Amino acid sequence: LKMSCFWFCLPLYLLTVACLCHSIKAPTTSSQQSFKTDLFNFYHSLILADGKETTIHLLKDIPKRYYFVLEESRALAPFTVTVTPCDVPIEWSILMHKASASFLGKAARGDPGTREVSKAQKAPTMVSTIFNYKGNSVETYMGMSSHSALYMLEFLSTERDTHITVYLTTDTTSGHLYPELPMDPRIDVIGIGHTTVTLTWKHSPSVLQHRENIQYCLLVNEKHNYKSLCAAETAMRSSGVKLPPTLALSLSPYLLEPQQVMILSNSELSIISKASSGEVRQICVGTKNTYTVPSLSPSTQYYFDVFVVNLLTNASAAYTGTFARTLEEPEPKVTELKDGKVIQIVLDGKNQKFYSLQYQARHKKIQFTLQLCRGQVRVHITKNGKTVASENISGLRYFLLKGKLLDTYLVQLRSTEESNSSVKVQVSSHFHKPLFPLLPESIKIKSFSKLRTCNSVTIAWLGTQEESKYCVYKKRLEEDQVWMELQSADRCSGPESRHKSEKVLCKYFYDINLQRAVTTETIKGLDEGTLYLFDVYLFGPSGIPIRYHSKVVKTRKKC
């Protein structure tokens, strides 16, 4: 009944207050005058919900106003208003209009004396601004409500269109929508390495009280700190990154965008997002208050923000962000290359560090030969400090370079995969005597589906104009072994790494006409419906083998 009366009397109350405002002769501010005008248009305004977070979209230079009136049973009770800017700084204020209780009583009873307000009637100025703020920080106003007061919140963005969230509540007994921050909300940097930064922060009281519903989420980027999770998500979306609704939902299943990578390990969820503004990393660490951020770049400044998130309401509170610069990477060790000598290098995929090789030329023309054994490798070659070659290599790659005597060449190699990669390197001034065999146009093995039977497979491969030795090997596989076998294959290893039972045959052939430099072989004695891995090794004059790309073929089940 009280609520029915409240909403029935509210329009009359607003109209009455508006009349009072109209009769006041005292000078008023523009905000107060605007406030009075808006009372007449109450039905075209918006009521702010109590106990609910409201998202408000603001257009540039156009103020937006929300109202709330507190029912009589809530008289002189505390209330709070929390405003979170999600992008640029905004201006916002709270205005209160308070009418006398006797006048409101007459208005509610429909007293004719209230229909005309004498201009000579003395009434104190009832409109007052009780709070105002300009900036992009999360701000909370705490006040005492009055049943005879109408409150207006006015928001304005002067930079550009934006959005904010507003939370009004009069219930201060049932807990907080937003997680609480500790008395000291700073993030401390307690360790800095070349690729890591260790952070710690004081526990939120909410974590200690509601551990199962609260978690910490960390945001790492190279641009600046964010004062709210809302602001961080807005900035990332404007950079072209699509996000889940909030980091609080990071533990729920959702589809990642193509530019996002999700890593789950040791109960920690990391989301790495690639955007035009650089990499942004989101890490949810549960209730731990110390964390070492891994896989950072050396000599780079990073900004770190910690948010304590309520998993039930998706509301969050931001610690005071910090920043740190990782240490400079020490000068890499340089290995001297010797003319004609082949070395094999294993590259660490996790650290993504360059492996450096140096060579001082004893002839004007030299040739670098690189054979990719496993993984993916990028090579960068400089001559006296100037780049002469930079590319990802595959298979066998030759770099024939011209210069002067005693020119200094630096070859830098690194894995472009997270797993380890391997490569063979040789430099020689006697490139007219190649160490590796002459290669055909393609080193792929072809199989003929129509020639497959239950116990035989026919394969073919290209040769060269140079007579060479070719050896064929086979290996039986299970369905679940195929991917691992192909990924882990060492393309630099020769037949000596194979079991003797896997050898099928060896043969010599060549053809002056490259169009006819192709050979076929039918491998018999196979099992029906079975997967086989076939490899062909090419041996040159030096005896160093080149392994063709492996081919997996399955025999027919029925013939």
UniProtKB/TrEMBL annotation:
Residues 232-329 form the Fibronectin type-III domain. Residues 1-23 form the signal peptide. GO terms for cellular component: extracellular region. It is found in: Secreted. Keywords: Glycoprotein, Neurogenesis, Repeat, Secreted, Signal. Gene3D superfamilies: Immunoglobulins. GO terms for biological process: nervous system development. Its main location: secreted. GO terms for molecular function: heparin binding. PANTHER family: NEURON-DERIVED NEUROTROPHIC FACTOR, PROTEIN NDNF. Secretory protein that plays a role in various cellular processes. Acts as a chemorepellent acting on gonadotropin-releasing hormone (GnRH) expressing neurons regulating their migration to the hypothalamus. Also promotes neuron migration, growth and survival as well as neurite outgrowth and is involved in the development of the olfactory system. May also act through the regulation of growth factors activity and downstream signaling. Also regulates extracellular matrix assembly and cell adhesiveness. This is Protein NDNF.
